[in-house]
Amino acid sequence: MKQKFNVITSTCAPLPLENVDTDQIIPARFLKATDKKGFGDNLFRDWRYNKDGSPKPDFVLNKPEFKDAVILVAGKNFGSGSSREHAAWAIAGYGFRVVISSFFADIHKNNELNNFVLPVVVTEPFLKELFDSIDKNPAMTVTVDLPNQTVTNNATGSQEHFEINGYKKHCLENGLDDVDFLVENKDKVEEYENKRKQGK
Fold it and tell me: How far lies 76's CA from each of 13, 33, 96, 97, 128, in Å?
């Protein structure tokens, strides 16, 4: 799942529902696993499949026009509820690189960042415009530019700036997790420790 993030232009899978919690993203019965493999298959499991395992044709991820989308556009307060990191595993495992919403639960937002998924917070009017644009033309695209921290609705030309922690931005741009970052800065850490031991 470690992928360098720069600029992504993609169609978008719309999920215009508010308060989508982590139990809806990945139901609790799938939390026994400790390996990230296979979680993408069960993303939104109860909305996505019938009880017999057959796909529900009216659910967004089962519609052919959205099968290649790597951007999920979701309603306000995405990722609320339980702090389970498995929800971010499922989103990343499915193949989403970006989730756009007007508000994210803090823990889920950080879990997405730790799993190389970029949560982009936009204003509610911009989010509504995205949903409207997708509804009018499912083939429309959005461009997310991490270096410049902008998100652009290519159907209308509207653009917003989004915020991201500088450390997390560096990690995403370079495909680094927290351990990778420490290894990358091993010399600096050792230099600091040596100075500290010497009382400098």
Answer: 15, 29, 18, 19, 10
pTM of the model: 0.89
**b/e burial code for range 65-96 (CB count within 10 A of at least 16 → b):** ebeebbbbbbbbbbbbbbebbbbbbbbbbbeb
Sorted by where each begins, the domain ranges of the chain are 7-164
Which CATH code is given to the segment(s) 7-164?
3.20.19.10
Q: Name the amino acid, one letter, at 91.
A: I
pLDDT tens column, 65-106: 999 999 999 999 999 998 899 999 999 999 999 999 999 999
**Cα dihedral 85→86→90→96 (10° resolution):** 0
